[in-house]
User: Fold this.
Amino acid sequence: MVHGRVLGTRLGPRCQSLLKAGVLRCSAPAEAANVVPKTVHYRAFSITPQTFRERKPLGKDESIAAVTNGAEPAINPAFADIAFAFDIDGVLYKGQEGIPGAREMLQKIRQQGLRYVFLTNGGGAHENAKAASLAKRLGIENPEYVLKDRVILSHTPMRGWDDDIKKNGTVLITASQPETARQLARQYGFQRAVTPADLIAANPHIYPFAHLRDSLHKETSPLPDGKSAAAITDPYSRSIPPDALKVDQILVWNDPRDWALDIQVIHDLLVSHRGYLGTLSSHNGDASLADAGWQQDGQPALWISNLDLVWRTEHPVNRFGTGAFLEALKGVWAGVTGGAAPLRYRALGKPSRHTYEYAHERLLRGDGGRKPLRRVYMVGDNPESDIRGANEFAPRDGASWESILVRTGVFQPTETEPEPRYKPTVVVDDVVDAVVWALRNEGADVSREWLLSA
Assistant:
């Protein structure tokens, strides 16, 4: 069954005024019936060419590439108060292969002056590096024009954290490439970032598998301010040496590579006294306290950059993501606490409200100033993150977020799960059909062919 709900049933004053001005052809908002199951038709919309009058067509000697050398494109008035948020993996590409039509679609909506961002749960690298990777996989020749300053990673909202935390707090960074993540954290302003590799370099007894210290964990830095990872010998003593390392925040930026080390170090800090490495809290297991005293003694906050259990690559079976690491950590925590206390953590990335608020604010700023938004279309492939996040997000300015689920990524209907757990506004074949559906829903008489044209 294809899901859809109609966002309107007749032309409003806004579309009528555009008709009178001769700006574009308007039509009734897209009906759910226009989107058909994949088994019936490959594409969600008719292949019959339809006319769409652009606000400022390119001249015969012009091209999108030529426009990039000039001023920003004028916003088509039909689209001035709408925007898009695109997931990346499974929506714009799978593994190293771009989704057919994604490149042309992005060029076209950029040409029309539409606002859009890329909202991904990926992380562990700089936003510019992700943009460069996207450009390479899609074959975009003018990434500065199409992609610049539009990528929001799972940890990007940390850029806006309080300066006091960044300057004075010590943060433990875990990631698939910890050294890259540390350098990025420093660019974000975190001046005291350490990695698990730093800890075992400073105290090899933390992790007894020495051979990995010369390979996976060979990149290290000295601990900040001359702190020591081996200063404490009595875990229950409260005479804390002045050089003992204290960790204030634990930041899991994306799925780590050595789960054993990272789970061990995170565990050590969550059972510690106030985040001092090598200590044990006397509150642990105290039945007179909330959650039997676990995580009740000033331990560092645990932040997970995204909760995606799986993600999509070229492989036919979904691959585990950061959410799988979290589930493993939860299992270890349940064993340590005897099930007496849930693991306390905070989440970023989709479906977190923190992330959607950050994306909404970025869209409001647009390409040159704060502009009101009426509707944002979230195009994603994961019902648990993309669709759920958009469905649950209600921005304070009253704009609506609508969710569009594509069939090119994580969600694939099966006999046991024929429909997604979190219901989107509509289900379509791919990102091109998603944009066509959204623009039709706004009253624009557009086609897939128009969207893919230069």
Observations:
- The chain has two domains: 77-154+351-452, 162-347.
- DSSP finds 14 helices and 15 strands in the chain.
- Confidence is low (pLDDT under 50) at residues 1-25, 31-70.
